[in-house]
Write a structure and sequence with these properties.
Elements: H1 4-12, E1 30-31, H2 42-56, H3 63-66, H4 72-80, E2 91-94, H5 97-110, E3 116-119, H6 125-137, E4 142-145, H7 151-154, E5 159-165, H8 177-186, E6 190-194, H9 206-209, E7 213-216, E8 230-234, H10 236-239, H11 278-291, H12 296-317, E9 324-325, E10 337-341, H13 345-354, E11 357-358, E12 360-362, E13 366-370, H14 378-393
Parallel strand pairs: 1-11, 3-4, 3-5, 5-6, 6-7
Antiparallel strand pairs: 2-8, 7-8, 9-10, 10-13, 12-13
Helix pairs in contact: 2-11, 4-11, 5-6, 12-14
The chain binds pyridoxal-5'-phosphate.
Amino acid sequence: MIHIGALRRLDAADPLRAFRDRFELPAGFIYLDGNSLGPSPKAAAGVVQRVVTSEWGEGLIRSWNDAGWIDAPRRIGGKIAPLIGAKPSEVVVADSTSVNLFKLLAAAVTSSGRRLILTEPDDFPTDGYVAEGVARLIPGARAVSVPRQHLAEALSDEVAVLLLSHVHYKTAQRHDMAALTAAAHAAGALAMWDLSHSVGAVRVDLNGCGADLAVGCGYKFLNGGPGAPAFVFVAESRQEALANPLSGWMGHAQPFAFEPRYRPADGVGRWLTGTPPILGLAALEAGVELALEPDIEAIEAKSAALFDLFADLVGARLAGAGFALISPQAAAERGSHIAFRHQHGFAIMQALIARGVIGDFRDPDVLRFGLTPLYLSFEDVWRAVDTLAEVMADESWRETPPRRPGQVT
Ligand SMILES: *Cc1c(COP(=O)(O)O)cnc(C)c1O
């Protein structure tokens, strides 16, 4: 039996406990969806307000220089670098993850004599969609997806780039980045990682693994706000050889020289395309600064403990209720959420949300619960599973109205 008193003692001794107060978290809710949209850091509103009223309101166009707007993509990229095991000169913030996937994949294929993009099926859809779109544009190119247990053998001498999500968006399975990067290199391919469900949640060591390229999301565990700009990583050794296919003026060596021909900026700055979104960057910077404060060891340890508690409670209280854990048991093999399949997953999640426990649902039958150590307590996990047990016992999930077309789940 797991007693709530014991969990409260764990919470009292939690070294990350003070971080909860740094977030806007409405009373009466348990937020288990920080892996999809991180909550607002309390600092974000003030930062954005200052940018609007002072930098934009009073500084006007002078703020591109005076308030450092023009440097923001490189400055914030440099702050993200230590979270992903990169050098500050290897990361820049730009566009969305989808657009960055396009830029890097197209660059990887066109810089190579090879024409295959190797991915895995059932990854986050945008990754596969963009790979297909890149393949359609480049004569002879193809995007091929192969189940993860066969990836190593699929790394033929035709593969230009291996693209994988480090942590899987549904199951939370975590790839062995070092081993797969080495396998890609042994086959003469580049290794590209989507860090959307990793950055801010698990240790990432791009340089230690020798990774070539990466992209990642600003609005999940970085808490950068809805639609926050994303980031691009290009290893120093690859920066010279790769060209941004969206060769816009902000990636030019001298945007304000207004030269008639494109000349790429040195280094990672060439991955910029258009004018950076300063309001979005301001909120993202608040999220990144907060993410830099805690030790990743403490985050990983608490994430593992929250997961084990969630899994144990579901095992103890909901045995026989139809929930199948699909996330790996071993902490080193997963990210920071827990996922279950259930045939009534959508209706159950809606009923949970109606009672203040916010997770999400992913087709066809997956309930996901984000386990974010900075603002979740052990007691929260206990209450969340208690509410789940209630919803199953009183069958209130049966009253969930059918899903509306286009509804965000
Ligand atoms: C969330 C997520 C994205 C998001 O892409 P956007 O362009 O921001 O919509 C991309 N890839 C993965 C793996 C994700 O988890």
